[in-house]
Each structure stands twice: as structure tokens, then as C-alpha cells.
Amino acid sequence: MQAAPVRATALPKFTDALRAVESLLMSGGQRTARRNAWNSVLEDRRRAKDRVEAERFLDVTTVTAVTAVTAATAAPLLTGLRADG
User: Fold this and answer.
1) d(CA 25, CA 34)
2) Where are the beta strands (DSSP E) in 1-85?
3) How remote is the C-alpha of 18 from its chain's centroid?
4) Residue 12 to residue 82: CA distance in whole angstroms
5) Do residues 22 and 31 lie in contact, with contact meaning Cβ atoms separated by under 8 Å?
6) C-alpha distance across the termini of the chain, in Å
7) C-alpha of 69 from chain center
8) CA distances for 31 relative to 9, 15, 16, 21, angstroms
9) Is 70 strand, coil or helix?
10) Secondary structure E strands in 17-63
């Protein structure tokens, strides 16, 4: 029994098929406007991701700085205390 023959041509990608349908249904200006809008959405998502990462970094940095200041401030106060009262 022989194996099924292998196809020599690759199937088009789904996005390529959508672009072909898009070119049939939309004029050039509409395609450009849609692509520009989609690029804007992607850029907004990238900026939102960067903003979240910056906020997380600032939160960690702030907590670390406050902890260091609190420890430095509390150390002189705690030196006079004794464990036995």
C-alpha cells in the first residue's frame, strides 16, 4: 500500500484569504483606513502594556524605598529597648 501523495502547493494562510476577500469588497482607501485603525489599536495595546509594567516597577520601587526609610528611622528608636522589660 502506498502513502497518499503530498501536495506540492501550500494552502494560503487564513489572513491571506481574508485580505483577498477584503480587496474584492473594499476600495483602496477603505483598506488603508482599516489598516491604519488596526495599527492604532496595536500601538494603544503596546502603550497600555508599557504603562502597566511601569506602574508595577514604581510600586515595587516605592515599597522598597519606604521599607528602607522606615527601617533606618526605627533603628535608633529600638536600640534603647531591652527584651526583659
Assistant:
1) 13
2) none
3) 26
4) 79
5) yes
6) 92
7) 33
8) 28, 14, 14, 11
9) helix
10) none
Residues 48, 64: Cα–Cα separation, whole Å: 24
Confidence of residue 10 (pLDDT cuts 50, 70, 90): low
pTM for the structure as a whole: 0.45
In which residue are the cell numbers 494560503 written? Answer: 12
DSSP 80: T
The three-state secondary structure class of 6 is coil
pLDDT tens across 28-43, in order?
788 888 889 999 999 9
Reported as a single tens digit per residue, the pLDDT across 62-75 is 777 767 666 666 66
User: In one letter, which amino acid is 47?
Assistant: R
Q: Which three cell numbers stand for residue 6?
A: 503530498
CB 26 within 8 A of CB 34: yes
